[in-house]
User: Fold this.
Amino acid sequence: MAEGRRTHLGELERAVMEYLWSATHMNDGSVHTDDASISGARNGVPAATVRQVHDALSGSREIAYTTVMTVLDRLAKKGAVEQLRDGRAYLYRPAVTRDELTAELMHEALGTVDGADRASALVRFIDTASPDDAAALRTALSELEERSGS
Assistant:
């Protein structure tokens, strides 16, 4: 994890990350889903300009272009996005997946307790999980045990 504590994202930072995770972007300003052949894409991960992010967010909130630029810069410093030079401008793409960031957040929360408190926190979490979440946990644990040969 980056030194910038990327798990502590504010509401606007999360909105920017959701946009970057949810769409692929063409450098001409158009947005496409599931298009790995775009300019600026690496391993199928698209890169977006500040303008693209601003345009997407400004449809649902009043936000300045410079605010979006600052948020993207902070996300880059936190290690949540990669900042790529494109001529005189920058392109931004997620450096982590949504599930990687969520897992980091969960590990960070668990890292605040030790021993019995940690076990109690895990039991409480599982006890309050929805049936679908509990089933997903069981499946994930089974898959991990199969992979490790336990």
Observations:
- The chain has six helices and five strands.
- The first strand starts at residue 24 and ends at 25.
